[in-house]
Amino acid sequence: MSYCSESIFDQGVPLAHVKSLVEALGYQKCEGINFDGHVASYFWYCSQEYKSYTGVELTLYRDEVGRLAVGTRSRSGRSYWDLKQQNKTLKFLRDYLGGTFETDAGANRYWHPEGPPPTPMASGCFHARWRFHNAIGRARIYLQTRRLEGNIAAEGRAPFPWMDEMNPRLLSNNMLLPYLVAIWESFFRDLFICICTCSEDRGNAISNARISKEILERVVSGELNISEAVGLSFSFQRPNLIAKNFKSLDLHLDLATPLRRPYRGRASTLFDSLGELVERRHSFVHAGRISDSLFDAEVNRALDDFEEAVDRCYTYVAEHYGFEALRDF
Question: Which residues, other chains included, contact 193 with Cβ-Cβ below 8 Å and sequence gap of 6+?
Answer without folding.
Answer: 124, 227, 228, 230, 231
